[in-house]
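Narrative summary of target 7.
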Amino acid sequence: MPVPPDTTFLTTIQQALHEARRQLTPVHEAATLEAEILLGHVLQQSRAQLYTWPHNPVSADQLSRFKALVTRRFNGEPIAYLVGYREFWDLSLTVSPATLIPRPETERLVEIALDLIPSEMPWHVADLGTGSGAIALAIAKHRPRCQVLATDLSMAALTIAQQNAHHLGITNLTFKKGSWCAPLSGLVFDFIISNPPYIAENDPHLGEGDLRYEPASALISAENGLNDLLQIAQSAPHALKKGGWLLLEHGFEQGDSVMNLLKVNGYNNIICYHDDGQRERATLAQTSL
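Modeled conformation, tokenized:
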């Protein structure tokens, strides 16, 4: 068991970073990066600025706040929650413990979506379980002719997503509260996308890393992680136009299961995509023409 960090910090940027790295290294592989992010957050400086003026002093108040953040990170709290934001695609997004932390793997969904959506076509797109709004906002920004609807069962998450949209000045999207396709009633979409919960209740990874602090409702699904994926697959055709598309993120061992449940529910042209780590990450399917 690692020894908790001590509270002895020196007074310059360089020294503070050195001490934080020393303390975080036993428990976090990216100790250097994390120390830089936390100190940059406290000082309101970029990582580059920290190294431009490494001998600048750190005030007592700044030092106290930095030490507190380092201790919380040592104890496992996610960096994104400590600083209140996360970079995703080309967006800086506010996040909170009410939302899942956007991950680099999910950027694969945005890449697939932007390849699929014609840049000049005014498609109607729905992002189900939007959380911080990461997927919806990335699509809305890069396909400004599209109208995007972002939904979530959590009002707290929707509030964060709306704040992100306002801060980023992205206006071609709306928000609705509700579970999966229920908020889409009476509407028709060209494309539905979702990163739903897909972790099984007994998955040991739930006790590791950032997952310990993220909302369980955004992570865990019944039926060995497939229940929410199945619900979306069953209900999405009622909200998609003929020949419309559904794109789902899923676990790296769920590709075959997701493809099968899509086949059973009448989808065609089913393709499983891999992420940068060559792991099954998302499956795209089309409704009947």
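The first strand starts at residue 85 and ends at 88.
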